[in-house]
Design a protein that fits this description.
With about 270 residues, the protein is an alpha+beta fold. The protein has 2 domains: about 25-100, Arc Repressor Mutant, subunit A (Orthogonal Bundle), CATH 1.10.10; about 110-260, GAF domain (Beta-Lactamase, 2-Layer Sandwich), CATH 3.30.450.40. It is built from 9 helices and 9 strands. The protein has helices spanning about 40-50, 60-65, 70-80, 95-110, 115-125, 170-175, 180-185, 195-205, 245-260, and strands at about 25-30, 35, 85-90, 90-95, 130-135, 140-145, 205-215, 215-225, 230-240. Helix 6 (about 170-175) packs across helix 8 (about 195-205). The longest helix is centred in the C-terminal third of the chain and has 17 residues, at about 245-260. InterPro entries: GAF-like_dom_sf (IPR029016), HTH_MetabolicPath_Reg (IPR050707), Tscrpt_reg_IclR_C (IPR014757), Tscrpt_reg_IclR_N (IPR005471), WH-like_DNA-bd_sf (IPR036388), WH_DNA-bd_sf (IPR036390).
């Protein structure tokens, strides 16, 4: 399929102020006396929706955002014309410009080539998928995944966000994320394990979860990665139950964590 060359769709007028909308100022302050631009926030939400939607057509993006189809269409056209999106048939995808920004964000998190090398080494040792997750606001998100070459028994979802309460990485990130964050999530109606579980994760220095993922019985192990006294992310491995021993995964992950932290490969 051929990507949209950047021209407008027939019949769609794109104004200089984000597709027909007046450049309005939102209610949220980013600094004293400065208000956010509502249209800019909406454009960013469109990019997020495209990234998080399995089949990002106009209809699907509109439904994900709760917007009228015509409004979503205008914003998507704006994304194409500005170079942040490309069109493939009926679907919209993030452009390489967005990928470059994403790579810069990963570098800011400290996910350097050396850390990726540790992830590749873990795949070589365990022959299982290895992931690195961070807190995206108040939910964990996988920002890097390395998989073995062989066909996996675990089926993957296209969704990068993972459970804040039942995933090993989610439990690690919340265990070190602070009581206030956990209280806020509970107040928002999100069911979390009891505090004793998070105390146990901090005491052990890892989390092991037995559960089901995409219809498979799986075992997942995650360890925190620290820099400057702060948990920067969670390194994890997942396997179909019974294939790789959880203690073996735990030991390899802990050694990789120690190498990353001891050698200063994860930047503050």
């Amino acid at each position: 399929m051929v990507a949209d060359p950047g021209g407008p769709d027939p019949g769609v007028r794109v104004s200089g102020a984000a597709v027909g909308e007046t450049e309005s100022r939102g209610a949220e302050n980013s600094s004293p006396g400065t208000k956010t631009l509502t249209s800019a926030v909406k454009m960013l939400r469109v990019l997020e929706a495209v990234a998080d939607t399995t089949t990002p057509t106009v209809t699907e993006v509109a439904a994900a955002l709760g917007w009228p189809r015509g409004v979503a269409h205008q914003y998507l056209v704006t994304g194409v014309r500005s170079g942040w999106l490309a069109r493939h048939g009926e679907q919209y995808v993030l452009s390489t410009k967005a990928c470059a920004i994403g790579n810069a964000a990963l570098a800011a998190l400290g996910l350097t080539a050396a850390v990726r090398a540790q992830m590749h080494a873990l795949v070589g040792a365990l022959n299982e998928p290895i992931s690195f997750a961070v807190l995206d606001g108040d939910h964990p998100r996988i920002v890097e995944r390395v998989e073995p070459d062989r066909a996996l028994q675990v089926r993957r979802s296209s969704e990068e966000r993972i459970s804040v309460s039942t995933s090993a990485s989610g439990q690690v990130l919340l265990a070190y994320g602070g009581l206030e964050l956990r209280d806020d999530l509970r107040a928002a109606g999100i069911a979390l394990p009891p505090e004793e579980r998070y105390r146990q994760v901090r005491a052990d220095g890892f989390a092991i979860i037995h559960g089901r993922w995409s219809g498979d019985d799986v075992t997942a192990v995650a360890v925190p990665i620290f820099s400057g006294g702060v948990c920067r992310g969670a390194l994890s491995a997942i396997t179909p139950s019974g294939r790789t021993d959880e203690n073996v995964m735990r030991d390899h992950l802990c050694r990789a964590r120690d190498d990353i932290e001891d050698e200063g490969r994860f930047r503050p």
